[in-house]
TrEMBL record:
InterPro entries xrefs: Elp3/MiaA/NifB-like_rSAM, Methylthiotransferase, Methylthiotransferase_CS, Methylthiotransferase_N, MiaB-like_arc_euk, rSAM, rSAM_horseshoe, rSAM_sf
Family: Belongs to the methylthiotransferase family. CDKAL1 subfamily.
PROSITE patterns: MTTASE_N, MTTASE_RADICAL, RADICAL_SAM, TRAM
Molecular functions (GO terms): 4 iron, 4 sulfur cluster binding; metal ion binding; tRNA (N(6)-L-threonylcarbamoyladenosine(37)-C(2))-methylthiotransferase activity
Manganese keyword on record: no
Residue ranges of every copy of the Radical SAM core domain listed in the record: 79-310
Membrane-topology annotation of the record: Single-pass membrane protein
Any one Gene Ontology cellular component term annotated for this protein: endoplasmic reticulum membrane
Primary localization: endoplasmic reticulum
Name of the protein described by the UniProt record: tRNA-t(6)A37 methylthiotransferase
Transmembrane segments: 437-457
Enzyme superclass (EC): transferase
Cofactor: [4Fe-4S] cluster
Amino acid sequence: SFRKAQEGKKKVVLAGCVPQAQPRQEYLKGLSIIGVQQIDRVVEVVEETIKGHSVRLLGQKKDNGKRLGGARLDLPKIRKNPLIEIISINTGCLNACTYCKTKHARGDLASYPIEELVDRAKQSFQEGVCEIWLTSEDTGAYGRDIGTDLPTLLWKLVEVIPEGAMLRLGMTNPPYILEHLEEMAKILNHPRVYAFLHIPVQSASDSVLMDMKREYCVADFKQVVDFLKEKVLGITIATDIICGFPGETEEDFQETMKLVELYRFPSLFINQFYPRPGTPAAKMPQVPAAVKKQRTKDLSQLFHSYNPYDHKVGERQRVLVTEESFDSNYYVAHNPFYEQVLVPKDPLLMGKMVEVNIYEAGKHFMKGQPVSDARVHTASITRPLAKGEVSGLTEEFRRAPQNGTNWKAQPSAEIPVKTRLSSWMALQLPWQQGGGGLKIVSVSLALLAVLVMFYYGGMKTEL
């Protein structure tokens, strides 16, 4: 735990939803904290913490009294995968789910302007990216606070996606996608958009959904799924389910089992309910732990009882190769439905779109062999950045000397700051330094992970 780190004289910075939502907890006393809207100021926080100061940046960013979406989209960063750009389109949400801690931390919906999002997408393609992921607490609610909507954004983004590159949409709750079904079906049928949508249902019981304050009923969820399955042939629908929410009866749970049996979701995220401190659901009468555990087990067994890809053996599919498998034996690609396809580990395939013959299928993947007569299409319009190379730097920044030159960081909406270029580089590229910066950042990230696991450690199975 971070207490052990402190006893070992380590410097600790905590970030994320939990410290943002409950900064006055006893265990956080004396620690530096950075809020969910202040990530662009992490350099300041780390530098002050190294000096022995306790810093807390938890404020909301505002412009003329209007809440902003979060950190600037054009800040320099290092992509985990140089081929994949992850863009947050908004922060916060419009719901008030009784089990959720994230809403408490991130607040109401705040969307980034379409122009900024399109510019970020353009820049990423100019840096060799071939796949964009849109993320959000609820992509379907995008734009409601700034007078626009998700389809308007998506059509603008589609215009700038190069041939061979792909766009993947993030999670959307049922209420805010219902009114856009026709347009969403057209977008999901676009050749440069994955026919994939993550729509959490959480429960198939209307009474449980009401207690969760999810603001939809099971019929709404079915309407979304049925419509998209009819209009977007082969679409992948992923969903989430919480087992053992307070008040869930055996009949409620069986309704959920029937829903999974009906749709046989190829991707299902099963969560055993865990009460987050300070949420309304934590104060409700709880389902016994043994019952929650058994329901989670039963649902997992049902999920593992069917194989969604067996019928696809023998198909010829177009796939985009973007990463290496966990066991390092294959490259990982995705077909137009964002289904995982493992291909031979041939460096010539990385970042390319290629046709393959499916020769094997597992529970979570297929295996494909590149077709001998197929053309390998280069999706990137330029050479991708090297792993660890900083994205978003201007030529002036790249040419700047690293021996103490002052560089004006993009200021936040609150306090303009200056930092030394050498210090910034020490944090952005810690492996190129003497090692001190790396230890602090690594320890901080590890401890953050421990804290998150501690609070959100209710059994979660990601399938």
